[in-house]
Amino acid sequence: MRKISPISSSRKALLVAASIAALGITGCANKVSYETTGSISRTAPQQSVQQQSAKTVAEMSSGELRNAVDAYGRQYEANPQSKQVGLSYSAALQMAGRNEQSLAVMRQIAIAHPKDRDVLAAYGKALAAAGELPKALDTIRRAQTPDYPDWRLYSAEGAILDQMGKPEEARALFQKALVLKPNEATVLSNLGMSYLLADNLPAAERYLRAALQQPDSDARIRQNLALVIGLQGRFEEAEKVAAGALSPDEAKGNVAFLREMLAQNNTWSKLKEEEQEG
Predict the structure, then answer these.
(1) CATH annotation of 38-46+55-143
(2) pLDDT (tens digit per residue) in 116-134
(3) Which of 90, 251, 255, 274 is least surrounded by Cβ atoms within 10 Å, i.e. has the fewest?
(4) How many Å apart are CA 99 and CA 97, to the nearest integer?
(5) Maximum CA pair distance of the chain?
(6) pTM for the model
């Protein structure tokens, strides 16, 4: 098996640009997305009986997401030390791209719950989303206990290491997480995104397909799988996959936008040139 070398900065930028093109059009995602781990709720606060079968935050349109952020914000203002409200509010803010505010919320929740591993994992994720990767890594590692390890913390640490350009270390941690929690969708998804950033699209597709088959998979996993399929030029198949998470028009628009972006930027030619140069 060919060893996959760490992705170059220019190649990584091309793939991230492709992910923005494929996912950003929905208003629900704006970058390569690692999955939230742990018991952090991604379900919007319920406003009516009709919403009790509500979408998760990951499945919402931009308008629905704004409403969810507003609702969680009111709950947080009323009870700023509530663990579950704080975790949910922070997660919704991250989905909306408001990473600095998400981090500010998690700082307050971490002060109120300094030894809670769910909180520390979410705090580390918020630090990473805000670009503070060394602090994020330190926070996650302090929360882990060797005698009783937490799969969620292994997964969170792996996601941070991947963003720091250490894919082999990251994948070793994802595998440790899977030993503790076999077939966990969020960990399989993180593995898939790790291979996407390494430009190993077949491996990325394999793990994302496995993640999507799990009962706890969500819309972001489906959209990331559609992205990986589209990046391999299988646009019709990508549209069908995306249609499971988006409206038909949104799925078609995403794939058309991805196709146009790849054509305009000559992405695959650039990737092949780097492959030959390497």
Answers:
(1) 1.25.40.10
(2) 988 988 899 899 989 999 9
(3) 274
(4) 6
(5) 59
(6) 0.74
